[in-house]
Design brief:
- The protein has about 325 residues and is of the alpha/beta class.
- Helices cover about 35% and strands about 25% of the residues.
- It contains twelve helices and 15 strands.
- Strands 3, 4, 5, 6, 7, 14 and 15 form a seven-stranded mixed β-sheet that branches.
- Helix 2 crosses helix 12.
- The protein is globular, with a radius of gyration of 19 Å.
Length: about 325
Amino acid sequence: MQAWQVHENGEPSEVMRLAETERPVPGDGRVLLRVRAANVNFPDALMIRGHYQVRPPLPFTPGLEICGETEDGRRVIANPALPYGGFATYAVADAAALLPAPDALDDAEAAALHIGYQTGWFGLHRRARLEAGETLLVHAAAGGVGSAAVQLGKAAGATVIGVVGGADKAAVARELGCDVVIDRRAEDVIAAVKEATGGRGADVVYDPVGGEAFTQSTKVVAFEGRIVVVGFASGTIPAPALNHALVKNYALLGLHWGLYNTKNPELVQHCHKQLTDLAARGAVKPLVSERVPLSEAAAAVQRVADGVTTGRVAVVPGDEAAA
């Protein structure tokens, strides 16, 4: 079979190597899956660079979420167990954590209905308790994580403000359903949010960016608002002034979705059922902007790392590679 391997940390386009390898042999409690589609996530790039909180031993195959097929033909969603990640013909996953792929979605869309949408659901519903009629501000609204939050916010009955970088991404955010779109490269984000909300601000802010985006969030969050800290795609981890949270009466909520897999796996299953129902109703549909063959996975990961993509990029190994 074929698999992309990382033998040293660095930029994805420089250190990922496509190799012919033996099929992995799953250990106890794990299963071998044929990869039907593998989604590219920003943490893949961080892991390849050696900057992620999880550091698998070298060499490893990246690819954190897939739609795969079991030996008995079931179509499932899984987080591969590293070092046997999803950018390969076959991957290994924990048998107990497999989720049924929704019939309403194709393979690439199903692969994308996992980490980003689970993170969005937990962030908006479990942590921030978003209510219908509230205003939700989403940073990086055209990206993989942000686009999921936009759709989930609209499905929950919120008014959604999307912040993006560039005209092309602004067009994508509008197509996703944002009620208001702010291009941070052309507009003053703080002034635009205040204008859109009549000076009140956003009840919930969903921030996968950090850095300047977080600073903006603290200035536009409403009274008793909630800022959900999801990640730091900007590369800058903010140092919040807690006196400011006290004076403005807002809450800072951290979200590490992966912890729920060990702390409360039943809730992950519940979330998947909710997402499957939303997909069946057409209320959410992952935005897959690109579908590339396995041979182009390294370039795809690099584009995601460089922040030039919208939605999700999926690696789809061809049937001819499944030998």
